[in-house]
């Protein structure tokens, strides 16, 4: 069995391989969406428009949000146990740091000329997703709990066979 430091490194590399994350939020109904992100310390930052459906869901229920990073179907060894990292997060609007954070978005997404246009559109907001807890799943029997983005334990619940 791998030690937790090794699992931590694997999870970090997995997350760092992505440019966007999936978002599950809730307003009067569940909302599934995605957003490009930057990672700073143990938080993720997204830039979304107030016109988008998920904006209101995030704003009105800032502590009822989940995010997920999911292995591509084309490279997984089994579709039934794709590698993934999912986290409960709290949203904090960070518009006072808008210019500084847009510069970080530009640094990560150098080849995206649309960023300059978005920066000048007042309906786009920067939202910090502060990670509370989560899970990193590598496959069957390889699930780990996190406190924030720190891997803290192997989940040892067994699957129950139905006879």
From TrEMBL:
GO terms for cellular component: cytosol. Signal peptide: none annotated. Residues 8-135 form the Pyridoxamine 5'-phosphate oxidase N-terminal domain. One of its GO terms (molecular function) is coenzyme F420 binding. InterPro entries: F420H2_bilvrd_red/Heme_oxyg, HutZ, Pyridox_Oxase_N, Split_barrel_FMN-bd. It comes from the Bacteria. This is Pyridoxamine 5'-phosphate oxidase. It comes from Campylobacter hyointestinalis subsp. lawsonii.
């Amino acid at each position: 069995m791998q030690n937790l430091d090794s699992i931590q490194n694997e999870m970090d590399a997995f997350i760092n391989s992505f440019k966007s994350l999936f978002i599950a939020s809730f307003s009067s109904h569940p909302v599934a969406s995605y957003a490009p992100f930057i990672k700073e310390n143990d938080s993720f930052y997204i830039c979304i428009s107030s016109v988008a459906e998920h904006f209101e869901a995030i704003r009105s229920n800032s502590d009822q949000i989940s995010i997920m990073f999911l292995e591509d179907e084309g490279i997984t060894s089994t579709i039934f146990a794709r590698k993934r990292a999912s986290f409960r997060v709290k949203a904090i609007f960070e518009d006072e740091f808008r210019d500084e954070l847009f510069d970080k978005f530009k640094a990560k997404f150098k080849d995206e000329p649309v960023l300059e246009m978005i920066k000048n559109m007042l309906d786009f907001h920067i939202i910090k997703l502060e990670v509370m807890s989560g899970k990193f799943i590598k496959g069957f029997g390889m699930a780990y709990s996190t406190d924030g983005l720190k891997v803290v334990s192997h989940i040892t619940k067994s699957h129950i066979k139905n006879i």
